[in-house]
Structures are given as C-alpha cells and as structure tokens.
Amino acid sequence: MVDLTELMENEVFMAFASYTTIILSKMMFMSTATAFFRLTRKVFANPEDCAGFGKGENAKKYLRTDDKVERVRR
C-alpha cells in the first residue's frame, strides 16, 4: 500500500487533486447561483418546482424560460 506522504509528493496526483477541487467548487457555486436566479426571478423548468408559488393556472405563469437564468445555467 502506498504511504500517504508518498502520495502527496506525487506530482500527477497533486495535479489531479487540485483540478478535482476546482471543478467541484465550480459545480457547487453554479448550482447555488442557478437556484438563486430561478427563485429571485420566479422562473422554473417543471411544474413540480413552481407548485409552491401558486396552484393551478396561477402556477403556470412561473413555468417559463428566462434568458438570464439560462445564461447562468450554461
């Protein structure tokens, strides 16, 4: 089994660990940013999400797309 100190000295492993940390941080930030934009603009992708803001026909007005939300999501 590889010792932890040997693993930390491995240049390839450190590059992989750094890249993984950056990508996971970006994914967590982008999901939070997308949720923030969807909630503040009241724009939802499916009927289950907008059910908390209205019932029946009133909920359908929240079921739409918004350019700013889509830009954050992509």
Structural class: mainly alpha
What general form does the structure show? rod-shaped
> Main beta sheet: strand number and arrangement?
none
Q: How helical, in percent, are the residues?
A: over 70%
The low-confidence parts are none
Gap from first CA to last CA: 42 Å
Mean pLDDT: 80
Strand content: under 5%
Number of helices: 5
Order of helices and strands: HHHHH
Radius of gyration (Å): 20 Å
How many beta-strand elements?
0
Key traits:
74 residues, mainly alpha, rod-shaped
What does this molecule look like?
It is a single chain. α2 (11-41) runs antiparallel to α5. This protein has helices at residues 4-9, 11-41, 47-50, 57-60, 67-73. It contains five helices and no strands. InterPro entries: MAPEG-like_dom_sf, MGST1-like. This is Microsomal glutathione S-transferase 1 isoform X3. Keywords: Endoplasmic reticulum, Membrane, Transmembrane, Transmembrane helix.
Quickly describe the structure:
This protein is mainly alpha-helical and 74 residues long. Helix content is 70%, strand content 0%. The chain contains 5 helices and no strands.
Break the fold down into its secondary structure elements and pairings:
Elements lengths: L3 H6 L1 H31 L5 H4 L6 H4 L6 H7 L1
Helix pairs in contact: 2-5
